[in-house]
Design goal:
One of its GO terms (biological process) is mitotic actomyosin contractile ring assembly actin filament organization. The protein has 14 helices and no strands. By secondary structure, the chain is mainly alpha-helical. About 60% of the residues lie in helices and about 0% in strands.
Length: about 280
């Protein structure tokens, strides 16, 4: 304490705070790089071999032309995204002259494909953001989409690579700058949490619901599977239809659309491991 009653200034404190901020930013960059790597690896698994997936640092920008997104959409919803409707299919125009307005059609195709499999719209980025290269949110959207599609048995699972991948100092610094310049960086929890929180329309047509009850009563697994898919219940796995039938047949409280969906999820939870879903 000095004679005027003012304590000594700790010059080390600001440096300590700066050091903590630096560590926090580095950890944040590493986490996001892991998500980028996981999404890139998953895309490579989902897309045909002739479809070149860019490097981790180049992926966000490449997504802006929508070609990879549309080709992914064709993979899980071919009726929504016929190959003939994908603009600049081989990206030759993009590589030679850059993006054109028609590339936004690819993004719209991808969007429609996601909505067709009941992916929550709140997670889907705006078309203009994707086209202009603001694709951090798109990466998190793809991560959540991977989980959703795996539960529907339409695509392979996405693998958590935390702790299994090393990144160069240059990659980390590049991502730190990118995250700093982004107005909004969603968390993985936000993206995947929307899958659990979304509202699902389970107002099944009375005729279909009656047919479902009849199939259960008659122990008709094949018809039950067809009806569950037709009624758009989520996460129906054809390999587990016998389990669904057994569980639905022993339900004592009476069946409703919501209880059927609940039983499907409960059966999946018992027979599909958590590691598979992640």
């Amino acid at each position: 304490m000095t004679s005027n009653g003012i304590g000594p200034i700790d010059l080390a404190a600001p440096r300590s705070a700066d050091s903590m901020d630096e560590k926090r930013e580095t950890r944040r960059a590493r986490d996001y790089l892991c998500r980028l790597h996981e999404v890139r690896t998953w895309l490579a698994q989902c897309l045909p071999e002739d479809c070149e997936v860019p490097s981790v640092l180049d992926l966000e920008q490449n997504l802006s032309n929508g070609v990879l997104l549309a080709r992914l959409g064709h993979g899980f919803a071919p009726e929504e995204v016929p190959l003939s409707r994908i603009y600049d299919f081989d990206q030759k125009k993009y590589k030679s002259v850059g993006k054109g307005y028609q590339h936004t059609d690819n993004i719209m195709h991808w969007r429609r494909a996601m909505l067709s499999v009941h992916f929550p719209e709140i997670v889907i980025p705006e078309t203009v953001d994707i086209y202009e290269g603001r694709n951090i949110q798109t990466i998190f959207c793809l991560y959540a989409l991977a989980i959703h599609l795996f539960r529907l048995r339409k695509m392979p699972s996405i693998r958590n690579q935390t702790g299994n991948v090393d990144f160069s100092a240059e990659e980390i610094e590049a991502i730190k700058d990118r995250l700093k310049n982004s107005k909004y960086v969603p968390s993985l929890h936000e993206a995947t949490g929307a899958l659990a929180k979304r509202k699902v329309d389970l107002s099944t047509d009375e005729a279909i619901f009656a047919a479902i009850q009849k199939a259960i009563k008659e122990n008709d697994a094949e018809t039950l599977l067809e009806l569950l898919v037709k009624a758009r219940y989520l996460y129906v796995d054809s390999a587990l239809i016998g389990r669904y039938l057994e569980a639905l047949g022993t339900e004592n409280g009476g069946l409703s659309s919501k209880s059927i969906q609940k039983i499907i999820c409960e059966v999946n939870g018992r027979f599909i491991s958590f590691s598979q879903l992640m």
